[in-house]
Write the structure tokens for this entry.
Amino acid sequence: MVLGDTRIRVKGFSTDNAKIALMKGKLALETALPEGPETVEAKLTDGTFTLPAISARQAYDVIVAAGDPGAVADVDPAPLRITKVAVGTAEFRTDRGELTLPAWLFTAVETTQPLAVPMLAESAFWRRDVPNYGGGGASIAADGVTLTVHMMKTPEPCPGMPTERFEAEVAESATAVTVGMRLVESSPAAAPGRQGECVNDLVHRTQPYTIRLAQPLGNRVLVGSDGAAAVNQG
């Protein structure tokens, strides 16, 4: 499942101050964060699934991290006051259409509706910001089920950025095998600094990932999670 543009659903603001504060990630938490379940049931287009859940603290951190302190540099808004946090549901735009998902709901003084963050853990979603199939090719071993693919190499973190580790993830059907990447670990920033203090040389680096298929690949098409066909080198 691929989320739309963001993991945060925002319906509207009653003041410009609130909009700018959210853009900057400037929040004031004025209530306790409740306990939540370890798993939640999500009704998707192909059935109902029990999936791992994130905590209220993790959801709150998602909202803060989405902000850019450098946005609207000439304005210093008052923090967006969060006065209530609760478990609920909200509609989110996904590659499977609008879906109602379990969500953490953050009531703010100056928003028309609570901010909503899906309770589903990161592993439930394809990451839109991660290149799926990097064009490095793929090979299948003689056993027909051991697949090696070349995809994005985890980059060295920039100052102020967390250290992240990704793994290859596979989904299989009778006609296709889809390979993508998912975040499996995120650690605090290894070096202090502000996000953006890093030179991007725009070089796309790949590394091999080995995946064990449930069934032999056979004549099924191998594609990235963006739908691009892979080049079979084996």
Observations:
- Residues 34 and 118 are 15 Å apart (CA to CA).
- Residues 56-65 form the longest helix (10 residues).
